[in-house]
Write a structure and sequence with these properties.
Oligomer: single chain
CATH class of the largest domain: Alpha Beta
Pfam families: AhpC-TSA
Organism: Flagellimonas pacifica
Radius of gyration: 26 Å
CATH topology of the largest domain: Glutaredoxin
Structural class: alpha+beta
Largest sheet: 5 strands, antiparallel
Strand content: 15-25%
Shape: elongated
Main location: other
CATH architecture of the largest domain: 3-Layer(aba) Sandwich
Helix content: 40-55%
CATH superfamily of the largest domain: Glutaredoxin
Number of helices: 11
Signal peptide: 1-22
Strand order of the largest sheet: 3-2-5-6-9
Protein name: Peroxiredoxin
């Protein structure tokens, strides 16, 4: 009996000790340069779905390490930025120490975290799958070789499927993690909706009540609101002439809401076809509103003139409208009926021509 009492007391003591322990993420910061004066650490807020400043450290002295700790609740994304302009985004998957050497660059050393660099993986896949195709497209467009452009489009569509599968496999290998959550931001919620739902299931099994899982669930639900048959949410923006326009201004007509950019080759291939279709569609009320995410207004204007785009154009440089619809890739479009309901998504000019002919 005494032995049982002692064991019980030991168990209770152990439980009490564990409850007092704090599980933390500790940033060990060591500046190796006198140029480094301030360090700003940001943390991704899954609720707000954006980076939020967590700590700004101003009294930095070279070769005098600093420790900054925060309670670890779930896998998280952090950003470290120096006053020199150098910065790094980090996925912290579990509690532990994050060692950062700060000099001409930022060097990460940690078993609990890794640098977020999925964009490099995409660049590598681009080189693997599309090597030479971009140059071929540019040459064909410059020479206005429509036959060659059509051949390249078919090839591109075939290779794109393999490219997306390769991207998805990279994320599957990451498993439910902060790194995978970040990588999903490079996918289109509409074009890759099935993959998002596949990954959400895995996140909910591993982290059922986490901010990551709730955020993914919220994004998928919002994307589902823009399913075929749904009314597209209104937007307000200034057009090329400086006039304020609403999506609801186009009610009563079939309208293509077309997202594009001057640097998007598939968009530029489609533009002349859309222009021809726009001019020749007479049997129904049909309009187009173009929304470009160009950063350079001159490039945007030049593309509009060169491609013969005569419909309403919006320059969405800060991507306000683009992000409103949770878009992440180009080209992207929505075809709406006169009541503003979505009847097609990501439709090519060729298929749009057929669909418009069927509408009376």
């Amino acid at each position: 009996m005494k032995t049982m009492r002692i064991l019980l007391l030991l168990c209770l003591f152990a439980i009490g000790c564990r409850s007092q322990q704090t599980v933390e993420t500790t940033f060990y910061l060591e500046a190796n340069s006198e140029k480094i004066k301030t360090i700003t650490i940001s943390k991704y807020d899954y609720n707000k779905e954006k980076m939020v400043e967590w700590k700004s450290i101003a009294d930095i002295n070279a070769n005098e390490p600093r420790n900054e700790s925060i309670q670890f609740m779930e896998p998280s994304i952090y950003g470290v930025k120096l006053n020199t302009g150098k910065e790094m985004r980090i996925a912290v998957e579990r509690s532990g120490q994050i060692n950062l050497q700060l000099g001409d660059g930022i060097v990460l050393d940690s078993e609990a975290a890794s640098e977020l660099n999925f964009n490099r993986s995409i660049d590598s896949l681009n080189n693997e799958f599309f090597a030479g195709m971009i140059q071929d497209f540019d040459k064909a467009m410059k020479e206005n070789d429509q036959k060659r452009i059509a051949e390249l489009e078919k090839k591109k569509d075939r290779v794109l499927i393999e490219f997306i599968e390769a991207m998805e496999n990279l994320v599957r290998e990451m498993g439910p993690s902060a790194k995978a959550y970040d990588a999903l931001g490079y996918f289109d919620l509409y074009k890759n909706n099935g993959f998002f739902k596949e990954m959400l299931k895995r996140f909910k099994i591993e982290y059922p009540s986490s901010g990551m899982s709730k955020s993914l669930q919220k994004r998928i639900r919002k994307a589902d609101l823009l399913a075929i048959g749904s009314k597209m949410e209104n937007f307000k923006a200034l057009n090329k002439k400086g006039a304020l326009i609403n999506l609801t201004d186009f009610r009563g007509s079939y309208v293509l809401v077309d997202f594009w950019a001057s640097w998007c080759r598939p968009c530029r291939v489609e533009n002349p076809k859309l222009s021809e279709l726009y001019k020749n569609t007479k049997h129904i009320k049909f309009d187009i509103v173009g929304i470009s995410i160009d950063a350079n207004e001159e490039h945007w204007n030049n593309a509009i003139e060169k491609d013969g785009l005569e419909w309403s154009q919006i320059l969405d440089t800060d991507q306000t409208v683009f992000k409103q619809y949770l878009l992440s890739s180009l080209p992207a479009n929505f075809l709406l009926d006169p009541e503003g309901r979505i009847i097609s998504k990501n439709i090519t000019a060729e298929k749009l021509k057929i669909q418009l002919k069927e509408l009376r």
